[in-house]
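Sequence, please.
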C-alpha cells in the first residue's frame, strides 16, 4: 500500500484527523479506540466522528475479537486495503480519462497567445479571430502558440499512468 496515496485519500475524506488515524491503523494493523486516542492524541468525540466517516466510505471496518484470557469482547478497527485500492484504481482511471480528453483538445486546436508573455491568456484560433488577433487585456498583437511540448508531456503522462494501471 502506497502510504502517500493512503494519506491523500484519508485527507479528502476526513482531513488531518483521518490522516492520523489511517496512518496509525496502517502501522498497527488493527487498533482499539482507546489505543488510537492514546497514540494520536485526538479527542475521543472527534476520533469517533472521523472513524464513523471512514467507515461510511468503507475505508475501515470493525473487528470484534474475544479476549482469550478474560473472555471480554474487544472492539478493533482495521483498514480495508482492498477498498482503498479500488478507490485508488478508480481515481487513476478518472485522471487518465481527463488527460486523454485534454490531449485530444490540444491536438485538435490551434492556439494563440499575447506576444507579451506577462498577459498570460491562451486563445483558440476561433477566440483569437473574434479579437482580431489582438490581446483582450493589453491590445497588443497575438502570436501562434506552439503546443508540441505540451502534447509530448501529456502523452508521456498518459503512457506512464496507463502502464501503472495495467501493472495492477
Ligand atoms: Zn497582452
Amino acid at each position: 500500500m502506497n502510504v502517500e496515496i493512503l494519506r491523500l485519500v484519508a485527507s479528502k475524506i476526513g482531513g488531518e484527523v483521518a490522516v492520523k488515524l489511517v496512518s496509525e491503523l496502517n502501522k498497527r494493523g488493527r487498533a482499539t479506540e482507546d489505543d488510537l486516542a492514546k497514540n494520536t492524541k485526538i479527542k475521543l468525540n472527534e476520533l469517533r466522528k472521523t472513524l464513523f466517516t471512514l467507515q461510511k466510505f468503507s475505508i475501515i471496518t470493525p473487528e470484534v475479537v474475544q479476549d482469550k484470557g478474560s473472555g471480554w469482547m474487544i472492539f478493533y478497527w482495521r483498514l480495508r486495503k482492498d477498498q482503498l485500492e479500488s478507490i485508488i484504481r478508480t481515481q487513476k482511471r478518472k485522471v487518465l480519462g481527463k488527460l486523454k480528453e485534454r490531449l485530444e483538445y490540444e491536438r485538435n486546436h490551434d492556439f494563440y497567445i499575447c506576444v507579451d508573455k506577462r498577459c498570460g491568456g491562451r486563445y483558440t484560433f476561433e477566440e483569437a479571430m473574434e479579437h482580431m488577433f489582438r490581446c483582450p487585456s493589453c491590445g497588443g498583437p497575438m502570436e501562434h502558440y506552439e503546443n508540441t511540448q505540451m502534447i509530448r508531456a501529456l502523452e508521456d503522462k498518459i503512457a506512464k499512468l496507463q502502464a501503472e494501471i495495467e501493472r495492477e
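Residues 3-79 form a domain with the Arc Repressor Mutant, subunit A fold (CATH 1.10.10.10).
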